[in-house]
Every structure is written in structure tokens, then in C-alpha cells.
Design brief:
Layout lengths: L12 H9 L11 H6 L6 H16 L1 H6 L5 H13 L5 H5 L6 H14 L11 H8 L27 E4 L2 H6 L1 H14 L16 H5 L6 H14 L4 E4 L2 H15 L6 E4 H10 L12 E4 L3 H4 L6 H8 L5 E4 L21 H17 L4 E4 L2 H11 L7 E4 H9 L3
Parallel strand pairs: 1-2, 2-3, 4-5, 4-6, 6-7
Helix pairs in contact: 3-5, 10-19, 14-16, 17-18
Length: about 400
């Protein structure tokens, strides 16, 4: 291992400055979803930063240079737990008084733990082999990626300037969501292409977010080149984590600007509604409440297009969570934490259900496959109930058979 004693190899100068900038003010504790359900300040954002700064001082400081570095093993173990229990939702960074971009910082602190052989935790460590062997983190067969949910009447072109990427979580864990996507695209009348199920592999986000980056360059190049070969100019996707990965990190691992642009499905559909290519004629006299996904709102800044789509439905009254848009509360499913800290994820998901029910919404509208799967799971055996639907699942139901 290169420079085993260093703790800064995986971090950019900006991230080092951010670590130094934390004042330990504790403002972020009010917004951290893990804090809301555990109250454990030992795994809080400021405590993670404090611990990591101790590692840097112990490895890089004057005392370390004179006498050698000595890292407290117990502190390292505590840090690994803290950084992997985090949902990486970025709410702490949104509230940070000095502007630390935590949604990007935590994954790179995890990468440092992987470099040192200390992370990830539990089932998270199985992700590289799962992606390598099956093309997805769920270890599901490639032939089952599209077949169970893809509508028979929707035609996919061999080549097109527009492509649709379903993503692993949508295809395997939130099928009504991706089915809705393609039904809506078909209703718009747009020609689009898709990669075959054995070629549409994981976007790389589960590997990136857990700090396991070794496979990412090959994975990204494989996907980008496959879309480029099909003449793609615009790649559509509904998964916020995929869109975030494609927008922020694919160019880095590809080594240059992508040969196509990335758009979230709601951006494309909002445009189609505005230019008259999609008309939702059916009315829906319901109170809908929309949850902003962390990696769509805080990640890539998409907040208004989903609301535009919902407000285009006649009869709808759109409600808002107290925390919305870039300040939204995590649903509990993010950061691969749900693979290990299931109880936290369920408890956080129930906070979303609680507020939606308290505001007397008829339906909770989601726009993230991880949220879709986990919040539905959180409602199992829970005394509070609300209809949960993905935004494109809702729209597709209003335009089918029109």
C-alpha cells in the first residue's frame, strides 16, 4: 500500500480545507437523519470530522514526524462504524455554517478506510463481486433485468439520439417506477434506445459510495462507449443516485467530457408537457405530497421539474413537507447504509410516512427507486398507512388507455 501512514491520499485540497474548516458548532445535528433516530452523537457529522482530524494529526503532525505515527485502533473502529452508518444524504452539509460539501466528503473518507483495509462493512463488501459477476449489486440474473416489467407494446430502437437507462434498483427493486418511465416515454412518442440487459450494468454508484473505486474506470468506459456506439446524445434516467453518478463522476472516470448529456426523466417529461407533446387529460382530485430525493435535490439541484409534472395534473393539490427541495429529509435508504443498518433505514423512512399522514395527503409521491423500496418496506407492519407511488408510475396510470 502506498504511504500506509497517510490519511490524506484520497482527499482533494478542497476536502482537506473543509475538514479544517469545521467549527464543531453542532448545527448539522438538527438535520442528520441518523441523529434523528439514534441520538448517538458519537456517530454525528462533527464527531466524524473530529476523529478524522485526529488521524491526520497523528500521521502527519510534527510529533508523528519525530517519533512515528501511532493511531488508536479503537478510534479507527469507531470511525469506520460512524462513516458507514451515515446515509450520505448531505443534509448536514446543506445546513453547514461554513459550507462543507459533506455529500461528497463522506464517500472519500470511506475510500480512505477501504484503502487501509478497514472498510466497507458487512454486505457492502460483497458489492464488487456482485457487480463483476452479475452486472448489478443485487446478484440478480441479467436476463431478469427487463423481462418481468417491460411493457410488450413499447418499442426500443437499435440506435437513437435518446437512450433510457433503467438502473439496477429500479429494474430489480422498484419495477413499477421504471415501467412507468418507459410507458411515459412511449406516450410522448419519442424514439429511444436501451442497452441489452447484459450490457446495461451498474452505473457504479454503489461502488463509489462505499469507497470501492477499483472497478469504476472500466465500468464507466464500458457504459459510455456502448451508448456512444448507438449514437446517443441524451441519456435519460430516473434514479437520482445514477443521475448523480453519471453527472458528477462518469466524466472523471471516463477521463474526459461525456459524448452525451445526462437528464433526469422529470426534466424530459416536464419539457414534453410544456411543448404539448404530452397531455395528461385525466383528472386526479387528490392531495399529493412529493418527497425530494437527496441525490436529486442536494446532489444535482433538480427540484422544480418534478413539481411541474405533478402540477400539470388537473385537480391535484400539491403539498410540501416541512423540509423540502434542497433541505429535504433523507428517506433512510441512501449511502448503502440500509444494507447494514436496516433498523435505522426503517425508522427514518417512517418519519416521512408520519409527516405525509399528518398533512392528510392522499398519496406520497417518490422519485427514487431506493426510497420507493425502503419506504414501502418501512410501512410494513406500521400503524400509519399511505398510498405510495412513483411520479412516473402515477403519470403513466393517467395516460394509459387515454
Amino acid at each position: 500500500m502506498k504511504d500506509r501512514d497517510s490519511f490524506i491520499e484520497c482527499l482533494s485540497p478542497k476536502q482537506l480545507a473543509e475538514l479544517d474548516a469545521c467549527t464543531q458548532c453542532g448545527e448539522c445535528l438538527k438535520y442528520c437523519p441518523v441523529q434523528e433516530v439514534t441520538g448517538n452523537k458519537a456517530i454525528s457529522p462533527p464527531e466524524k470530522i473530529r476523529m478524522f482530524r485526529e488521524f491526520i494529526r497523528a500521521a502527519e503532525g510534527l510529533k508523528a514526524r519525530l517519533f512515528g505515527s501511532r493511531i488508536d485502533d479503537k478510534l479507527l473502529q469507531d470511525f469506520v462504524k460512524a462513516v458507514y452508518e451515515c446515509t450520505t444524504c448531505g443534509a448536514c452539509g446543506q445546513a453547514c455554517t461554513v459550507g462543507i460539501f459533506t455529500q461528497r466528503l463522506w464517500p472519500f473518507l470511506r475510500k480512505e478506510m477501504v484503502r487501509r483495509g478497514l472498510g466497507p462493512i458487512g454486505a457492502q463488501a460483497e458489492t464488487p463481486d456482485a457487480v463483476k459477476n452479475t452486472g448489478n449489486p443485487y446478484k440478480k440474473p441479467a436476463e431478469e433485468r427487463f423481462k418481468p416489467w417491460f411493457p410488450e407494446n413499447v418499442r426500443v430502437s437499435e440506435k437513437s439520439e435518446i437512450a433510457y437507462y433503467a438502473g439496477c434498483t429500479g429494474a430489480y427493486e422498484a419495477q413499477p417506477m421504471v415501467k412507468g418511465d418507459v410507458i411515459v416515454l412511449n406516450a410522448i412518442g419519442v424514439e429511444f434506445t436501451m442497452l441489452p440487459p447484459e450490457e446495461e450494468v451498474c452505473c457504479g454508484f454503489p461502488l463509489f459510495i462505499t469507497g470501492q473505486h477499483d472497478m469504476l474506470e472500466d465500468l464507466v468506459k464500458r457504459l459510455v462507449d456502448a451508448y456512444s456506439d448507438r449514437g446517443v446524445k441524451t441519456l435519460l434516467c430516473s434514479c437520482p443516485c445514477c443521475v448523480n453518478m453519471m453527472t458528477r463522476d462518469w466524466p472523471v472516470f471516463y477521463g474526459r467530457e461525456l459524448p452525451f448529456r445526462i437528464r433526469h426523466i422529470t426534466q424530459f417529461v416536464a419539457d414534453a408537457i410544456n411543448n404539448g407533446r404530452l397531455v395528461i387529460k385525466k383528472k386526479l382530485k387528490e392531495r399529493l405530497i412529493y418527497h425530494d430525493p437527496c441525490y436529486l435535490s442536494r446532489g444535482v439541484g433538480i427540484t422544480e421539474e418534478p413539481r411541474m409534472v405533478l402540477e400539470s395534473i388537473s385537480g391535484v393539490k400539491l403539498l410540501e413537507f416541512d423540509r423540502n427541495r434542497a433541505n429535504s429529509r433523507c428517506c433512510g435508504a441512501g449511502g448503502a447504509a440500509r444494507k447494514v443498518y436496516h433498523e435505522n433505514a426503517v425508522a427514518i423512512g417512517r418519519l416521512t410516512i408520519d409527516e405525509a399522514v399528518a398533512k392528510k395527503a392522499d398519496r406520497l409521491i417518490l422519485s427514487c427507486p431506493a426510497c420507493y423500496a425502503k419506504v414501502n418496506e418501512a410501512m410494513e407492519g406500521y400503524d400509519k398507512k399511505i398510498r405510495i407511488v412513483d411520479i412516473m408510475e402515477l403519470v403513466s396510470g393517467l395516460i394509459e388507455g387515454k
